[in-house]
Amino acid sequence: MVSFNFGAGPAVLPGDILEQARAEAFNWQGSGMSLFEIPFGDPTFGAVMQTAHRALQQVLNLPDSHHLLFLQGGAYAHFAFVAMNLMGDKKRACYLDTGHWSKRAIAEASKYGEIVVDRIVADGAYCHMTTNETTQGRQFHELPDSQGLPLVADMTSDILTRPIDFSHMDLVYASAQKNIAPAGLSLVIMHEKLFDRALDITPTVFNYTLQARNNSRVNTPNLFGIYMAGLMAKWVTDQGGLPEMAKRSREKSAVLYETIDHSRFFHASVNGEMRSHVNVCFGLKDPALNELFLQQAQHEGLLNLNGHSAGAPLRASLYNALPRAGVVALADFIKRFDGQLAR
Ligand code: PLP
Questions:
Q1: Which of 56, 170, 210, 229 has a CB 3.0–4.6 Å from the CB of 150, allowing a cystine?
Q2: Which parts of the sequence carry N6-(pyridoxal phosphate)lysine (predicted)?
Protein backbone atom coordinates (compact mmCIF):
# COMPACT_ATOMS: atom_id res chain seq x y z
CA MET A 1 0.00 0.00 0.00
CA VAL A 2 1.23 3.52 -0.78
CA SER A 3 1.53 5.56 2.40
CA PHE A 4 2.07 9.24 3.09
CA ASN A 5 3.80 10.70 6.14
CA PHE A 6 2.11 13.89 7.37
CA GLY A 7 4.24 14.10 10.53
CA ALA A 8 5.34 17.55 11.72
CA GLY A 9 8.91 16.49 12.33
CA PRO A 10 11.15 14.64 12.01
CA ALA A 11 9.40 14.62 8.69
CA VAL A 12 9.39 12.99 5.29
CA LEU A 13 12.50 13.49 3.11
CA PRO A 14 12.50 13.06 -0.68
CA GLY A 15 12.99 9.41 -1.62
CA ASP A 16 15.64 10.17 -4.23
CA ILE A 17 17.79 11.94 -1.63
CA LEU A 18 17.56 8.93 0.68
CA GLU A 19 18.54 6.68 -2.23
CA GLN A 20 21.52 8.88 -3.10
CA ALA A 21 22.68 8.92 0.53
CA ARG A 22 22.36 5.14 0.72
CA ALA A 23 24.47 4.77 -2.41
CA GLU A 24 27.15 7.31 -1.42
CA ALA A 25 27.46 7.71 2.32
CA PHE A 26 28.67 4.25 3.32
CA ASN A 27 31.72 4.27 1.05
CA TRP A 28 32.52 7.90 0.39
CA GLN A 29 33.92 8.31 -3.11
CA GLY A 30 35.35 4.79 -2.97
CA SER A 31 37.64 5.72 -0.04
CA GLY A 32 36.58 2.71 2.02
CA MET A 33 35.42 5.18 4.70
CA SER A 34 31.83 6.09 5.36
CA LEU A 35 30.80 9.71 5.68
CA PHE A 36 30.46 9.08 9.43
CA GLU A 37 34.15 8.22 9.80
CA ILE A 38 35.93 11.01 7.96
CA PRO A 39 38.35 12.73 10.36
CA PHE A 40 37.70 16.36 11.23
CA GLY A 41 41.11 17.37 9.84
CA ASP A 42 40.74 15.53 6.52
CA PRO A 43 40.32 17.87 3.51
CA THR A 44 37.29 15.78 2.51
CA PHE A 45 35.49 16.92 5.67
CA GLY A 46 35.82 20.56 4.66
CA ALA A 47 34.94 19.79 1.05
CA VAL A 48 31.64 18.12 1.99
CA MET A 49 30.79 21.13 4.15
CA GLN A 50 31.67 23.56 1.39
CA THR A 51 29.52 21.78 -1.19
CA ALA A 52 26.49 21.87 1.09
CA HIS A 53 27.21 25.47 2.08
CA ARG A 54 27.32 26.59 -1.54
CA ALA A 55 24.10 24.72 -2.44
CA LEU A 56 22.18 26.29 0.47
CA GLN A 57 23.59 29.76 -0.11
CA GLN A 58 22.48 29.51 -3.71
CA VAL A 59 18.97 28.17 -3.15
CA LEU A 60 18.30 30.65 -0.33
CA ASN A 61 19.79 33.49 -2.40
CA LEU A 62 21.81 34.77 0.55
CA PRO A 63 23.47 38.17 0.21
CA ASP A 64 27.24 38.37 0.89
CA SER A 65 26.49 40.14 4.18
CA HIS A 66 24.77 36.99 5.56
CA HIS A 67 26.79 34.10 7.00
CA LEU A 68 25.39 30.59 7.00
CA LEU A 69 26.40 28.46 10.00
CA PHE A 70 26.01 24.73 10.58
CA LEU A 71 25.48 24.24 14.31
CA GLN A 72 24.00 21.68 16.68
CA GLY A 73 21.45 21.96 19.45
CA GLY A 74 18.11 22.32 17.63
CA ALA A 75 15.97 25.45 17.57
CA TYR A 76 14.93 24.99 21.21
CA ALA A 77 18.57 25.37 22.24
CA HIS A 78 18.95 28.37 19.93
CA PHE A 79 16.07 30.13 21.72
CA ALA A 80 18.70 30.70 24.42
CA PHE A 81 21.72 31.10 22.12
CA VAL A 82 20.00 33.78 20.02
CA ALA A 83 19.42 35.84 23.16
CA MET A 84 22.99 35.27 24.37
CA ASN A 85 24.42 36.28 21.00
CA LEU A 86 22.28 39.34 20.35
CA MET A 87 21.13 40.86 23.64
CA GLY A 88 24.43 42.78 24.06
CA ASP A 89 24.47 45.75 26.43
CA LYS A 90 20.83 46.55 25.78
CA LYS A 91 19.63 43.50 27.72
CA ARG A 92 16.18 44.03 26.22
CA ALA A 93 14.46 42.48 23.19
CA CYS A 94 11.00 42.43 21.59
CA TYR A 95 9.20 39.15 20.83
CA LEU A 96 5.99 38.52 18.88
CA ASP A 97 3.92 35.89 20.64
CA THR A 98 2.02 33.88 18.04
CA GLY A 99 1.79 30.50 19.75
CA HIS A 100 3.56 27.55 21.28
CA TRP A 101 7.09 27.99 19.89
CA SER A 102 7.26 31.74 20.33
CA LYS A 103 6.21 31.25 23.96
CA ARG A 104 9.06 28.77 24.40
CA ALA A 105 11.47 31.23 22.75
CA ILE A 106 10.30 33.99 25.09
CA ALA A 107 10.72 31.78 28.17
CA GLU A 108 14.33 30.95 27.24
CA ALA A 109 15.30 34.49 26.22
CA SER A 110 13.84 35.88 29.48
CA LYS A 111 16.77 34.29 31.31
CA TYR A 112 19.18 36.68 29.59
CA GLY A 113 17.34 40.01 29.49
CA GLU A 114 14.00 41.76 29.64
CA ILE A 115 11.51 40.61 27.01
CA VAL A 116 8.88 43.01 25.72
CA VAL A 117 6.01 41.01 24.19
CA ASP A 118 4.01 42.15 21.14
CA ARG A 119 5.38 45.67 21.28
CA ILE A 120 8.41 47.29 19.67
CA VAL A 121 10.58 49.48 21.89
CA ALA A 122 13.24 51.63 20.25
CA ASP A 123 15.98 50.46 22.61
CA GLY A 124 15.34 46.75 21.99
CA ALA A 125 18.35 44.76 20.77
CA TYR A 126 16.20 42.92 18.20
CA CYS A 127 12.67 41.84 17.30
CA HIS A 128 11.95 38.09 17.25
CA MET A 129 9.22 36.27 15.35
CA THR A 130 8.27 32.68 14.55
CA THR A 131 7.51 32.71 10.83
CA ASN A 132 5.39 29.56 11.07
CA GLU A 133 3.91 28.26 14.32
CA THR A 134 4.10 24.53 13.67
CA THR A 135 1.79 23.68 16.57
CA GLN A 136 -1.04 26.11 15.84
CA GLY A 137 -0.69 26.17 12.04
CA ARG A 138 -0.28 29.93 11.95
CA GLN A 139 2.08 31.54 9.43
CA PHE A 140 3.22 35.04 8.57
CA HIS A 141 2.82 35.55 4.82
CA GLU A 142 4.39 39.02 5.03
CA LEU A 143 7.25 40.04 7.27
CA PRO A 144 6.22 42.40 10.08
CA ASP A 145 7.69 45.88 10.37
CA SER A 146 10.35 45.67 13.09
CA GLN A 147 10.63 49.49 13.14
CA GLY A 148 14.33 49.54 12.57
CA LEU A 149 15.25 46.77 15.02
CA PRO A 150 17.16 43.78 13.63
CA LEU A 151 14.59 41.17 12.62
CA VAL A 152 15.24 37.67 13.96
CA ALA A 153 13.17 34.64 12.95
CA ASP A 154 12.70 31.04 13.94
CA MET A 155 12.02 29.47 10.52
CA THR A 156 12.20 25.86 11.66
CA SER A 157 9.05 24.76 9.91
CA ASP A 158 9.00 26.91 6.79
CA ILE A 159 12.58 27.46 5.72
CA LEU A 160 13.06 26.24 2.14
CA THR A 161 9.31 26.33 1.52
CA ARG A 162 9.22 29.88 0.12
CA PRO A 163 11.54 32.70 -0.98
CA ILE A 164 12.67 35.02 1.81
CA ASP A 165 14.14 38.44 1.19
CA PHE A 166 17.18 38.33 3.43
CA SER A 167 17.76 42.04 3.01
CA HIS A 168 14.87 42.34 5.55
CA MET A 169 16.12 39.55 7.82
CA ASP A 170 19.06 39.89 10.15
CA LEU A 171 19.13 36.46 11.74
CA VAL A 172 17.28 33.28 10.85
CA TYR A 173 17.61 29.94 12.59
CA ALA A 174 16.04 26.55 12.00
CA SER A 175 16.22 22.95 13.15
CA ALA A 176 16.82 20.68 10.18
CA GLN A 177 14.31 17.91 10.68
CA LYS A 178 11.36 19.27 8.73
CA ASN A 179 12.60 20.49 5.40
CA ILE A 180 16.37 20.16 5.43
CA ALA A 181 17.90 16.99 6.86
CA PRO A 182 17.65 14.56 9.80
CA ALA A 183 17.52 16.05 13.33
CA GLY A 184 20.79 17.07 14.94
CA LEU A 185 21.66 19.99 12.70
CA SER A 186 20.64 23.63 13.04
CA LEU A 187 21.10 26.34 10.44
CA VAL A 188 21.83 29.88 11.58
CA ILE A 189 21.95 32.68 9.01
CA MET A 190 23.34 35.90 10.41
CA HIS A 191 24.00 39.39 9.05
CA GLU A 192 27.55 40.36 9.90
CA LYS A 193 26.37 43.64 11.38
CA LEU A 194 25.24 41.58 14.39
CA PHE A 195 28.72 40.16 15.06
CA ASP A 196 30.54 40.72 18.36
CA ARG A 197 27.50 41.24 20.58
CA ALA A 198 27.59 37.95 22.50
CA LEU A 199 27.28 37.95 26.28
CA ASP A 200 30.39 36.65 28.10
CA ILE A 201 28.42 33.64 29.34
CA THR A 202 27.83 32.39 25.75
CA PRO A 203 29.34 28.92 25.28
CA THR A 204 32.26 29.11 22.86
CA VAL A 205 30.76 26.63 20.39
CA PHE A 206 27.49 28.59 20.31
CA ASN A 207 29.13 31.95 19.82
CA TYR A 208 27.75 32.72 16.36
CA THR A 209 30.45 35.27 15.50
CA LEU A 210 33.22 32.85 16.37
CA GLN A 211 31.56 30.07 14.39
CA ALA A 212 31.07 32.38 11.39
CA ARG A 213 34.75 33.33 11.45
CA ASN A 214 35.76 29.66 11.65
CA ASN A 215 33.45 28.24 8.96
CA SER A 216 31.32 26.42 11.59
CA ARG A 217 34.34 24.37 12.65
CA VAL A 218 35.03 25.58 16.19
CA ASN A 219 34.09 22.05 17.19
CA THR A 220 33.06 18.90 15.29
CA PRO A 221 29.92 19.52 13.22
CA ASN A 222 27.31 16.98 12.18
CA LEU A 223 28.79 16.13 8.79
CA PHE A 224 26.10 13.66 7.76
CA GLY A 225 23.35 16.20 8.49
CA ILE A 226 25.26 18.85 6.57
CA TYR A 227 25.69 16.48 3.62
CA MET A 228 21.94 15.74 3.64
CA ALA A 229 21.18 19.47 3.83
CA GLY A 230 23.31 19.96 0.71
CA LEU A 231 21.40 17.22 -1.13
CA MET A 232 18.11 18.81 -0.08
CA ALA A 233 19.21 22.25 -1.30
CA LYS A 234 20.15 20.77 -4.65
CA TRP A 235 16.85 18.86 -4.82
CA VAL A 236 14.91 22.08 -4.22
CA THR A 237 16.94 23.86 -6.90
CA ASP A 238 16.35 21.04 -9.38
CA GLN A 239 12.60 21.16 -8.68
CA GLY A 240 12.47 24.85 -9.60
CA GLY A 241 13.75 26.58 -6.46
CA LEU A 242 11.87 28.34 -3.68
CA PRO A 243 9.20 30.02 -5.88
CA GLU A 244 8.17 26.53 -7.03
CA MET A 245 8.18 25.21 -3.43
CA ALA A 246 5.96 28.14 -2.39
CA LYS A 247 3.57 27.46 -5.27
CA ARG A 248 3.31 23.79 -4.34
CA SER A 249 2.77 24.56 -0.63
CA ARG A 250 0.04 27.06 -1.50
CA GLU A 251 -1.70 24.59 -3.79
CA LYS A 252 -1.41 21.63 -1.43
CA SER A 253 -2.74 23.57 1.55
CA ALA A 254 -5.57 25.08 -0.55
CA VAL A 255 -6.83 21.58 -1.45
CA LEU A 256 -7.05 20.67 2.23
CA TYR A 257 -8.51 23.92 3.56
CA GLU A 258 -11.13 23.84 0.84
CA THR A 259 -12.08 20.26 1.68
CA ILE A 260 -12.28 20.98 5.40
CA ASP A 261 -14.24 24.23 4.91
CA HIS A 262 -16.79 22.38 2.77
CA SER A 263 -17.19 19.44 5.12
CA ARG A 264 -20.03 19.08 7.58
CA PHE A 265 -18.17 17.46 10.43
CA PHE A 266 -14.64 18.94 10.33
CA HIS A 267 -13.40 22.42 11.08
CA ALA A 268 -10.09 24.16 10.47
CA SER A 269 -8.56 25.67 13.59
CA VAL A 270 -7.19 28.78 11.87
CA ASN A 271 -9.22 31.10 9.68
CA GLY A 272 -8.14 34.14 7.77
CA GLU A 273 -4.79 35.44 6.66
CA MET A 274 -2.55 33.48 8.96
CA ARG A 275 -3.49 30.02 7.73
CA SER A 276 -0.27 28.08 7.37
CA HIS A 277 0.68 26.65 4.00
CA VAL A 278 2.74 23.92 5.65
CA ASN A 279 0.89 22.83 8.81
CA VAL A 280 -2.86 22.50 8.33
CA CYS A 281 -4.46 22.17 11.78
CA PHE A 282 -7.99 20.86 12.06
CA GLY A 283 -10.33 18.63 14.00
CA LEU A 284 -13.73 17.05 14.08
CA LYS A 285 -16.50 19.21 15.49
CA ASP A 286 -17.27 16.30 17.81
CA PRO A 287 -13.89 15.75 19.53
CA ALA A 288 -14.84 12.19 20.44
CA LEU A 289 -14.42 11.28 16.75
CA ASN A 290 -10.81 12.43 16.28
CA GLU A 291 -9.40 9.11 17.47
CA LEU A 292 -11.59 7.12 15.07
CA PHE A 293 -10.46 9.37 12.22
CA LEU A 294 -6.79 8.82 13.11
CA GLN A 295 -7.24 5.05 13.26
CA GLN A 296 -9.02 4.85 9.93
CA ALA A 297 -6.56 7.25 8.30
CA GLN A 298 -3.65 5.08 9.41
CA HIS A 299 -5.41 2.12 7.88
CA GLU A 300 -5.51 4.03 4.59
CA GLY A 301 -1.77 4.75 4.75
CA LEU A 302 -2.29 8.37 5.86
CA LEU A 303 0.23 8.49 8.69
CA ASN A 304 1.06 10.77 11.61
CA LEU A 305 -1.95 13.07 11.35
CA ASN A 306 -2.19 13.57 15.10
CA GLY A 307 -1.76 17.16 16.29
CA HIS A 308 0.57 18.56 18.97
CA SER A 309 -0.71 18.36 22.56
CA ALA A 310 -0.75 22.19 22.68
CA GLY A 311 -2.57 22.55 19.34
CA ALA A 312 -5.46 21.15 17.31
CA PRO A 313 -6.18 17.40 17.55
CA LEU A 314 -5.36 16.83 13.87
CA ARG A 315 -2.56 18.28 11.75
CA ALA A 316 -1.35 17.59 8.24
CA SER A 317 2.19 18.78 7.66
CA LEU A 318 2.83 19.48 3.99
CA TYR A 319 6.56 19.98 3.77
CA ASN A 320 8.42 19.96 0.46
CA ALA A 321 8.80 16.19 0.24
CA LEU A 322 5.09 15.48 0.81
CA PRO A 323 3.70 15.00 -2.71
CA ARG A 324 0.44 16.51 -3.91
CA ALA A 325 -0.87 12.95 -4.32
CA GLY A 326 -0.75 12.60 -0.52
CA VAL A 327 -2.90 15.68 -0.08
CA VAL A 328 -5.37 14.48 -2.70
CA ALA A 329 -5.59 11.10 -0.92
CA LEU A 330 -6.17 12.84 2.44
CA ALA A 331 -8.80 15.19 1.00
CA ASP A 332 -10.57 12.21 -0.54
CA PHE A 333 -10.50 10.38 2.81
CA ILE A 334 -11.88 13.42 4.67
CA LYS A 335 -14.78 13.52 2.19
CA ARG A 336 -15.46 9.81 2.63
CA PHE A 337 -15.31 10.11 6.44
CA ASP A 338 -17.71 13.05 6.25
CA GLY A 339 -20.08 11.01 4.07
CA GLN A 340 -19.86 8.06 6.45
CA LEU A 341 -20.90 10.27 9.40
CA ALA A 342 -23.77 11.79 7.43
CA ARG A 343 -25.34 8.37 6.84
N1 PLP B 1 10.60 26.05 16.62
C2 PLP B 1 9.63 25.56 15.83
C3 PLP B 1 8.84 26.50 14.97
C4 PLP B 1 9.39 24.19 15.82
O5 PLP B 1 8.42 23.69 15.04
C6 PLP B 1 10.15 23.33 16.64
C7 PLP B 1 9.91 21.88 16.65
O8 PLP B 1 8.98 21.36 16.14
C9 PLP B 1 11.16 23.89 17.44
C10 PLP B 1 11.35 25.26 17.40
C11 PLP B 1 12.02 23.04 18.32
O12 PLP B 1 12.91 22.30 17.55
P13 PLP B 1 13.93 21.24 18.22
O14 PLP B 1 13.09 20.21 18.90
O15 PLP B 1 14.70 20.72 17.08
O16 PLP B 1 14.79 22.00 19.19
A1: 170
A2: 178
